[in-house]
Amino acid sequence: MKKKSMSLVASALLAMASAFVLTACLIWLNQPEVPQELLKGKEG
Hints:
Blueprint: H1 2-29, H2 36-43
Protein name: Cyclic lactone autoinducer peptide
InterPro entries: AgrD
């Protein structure tokens, strides 16, 4: 019984970690492009 419950906990942690990483990757990939006017303002 203990082995089965530990396997269930491990599976739940794996699912949570996968969801977190997938969400972070999607947010990072969908970043808006910064306009050139703003980039020029930062440089000079």
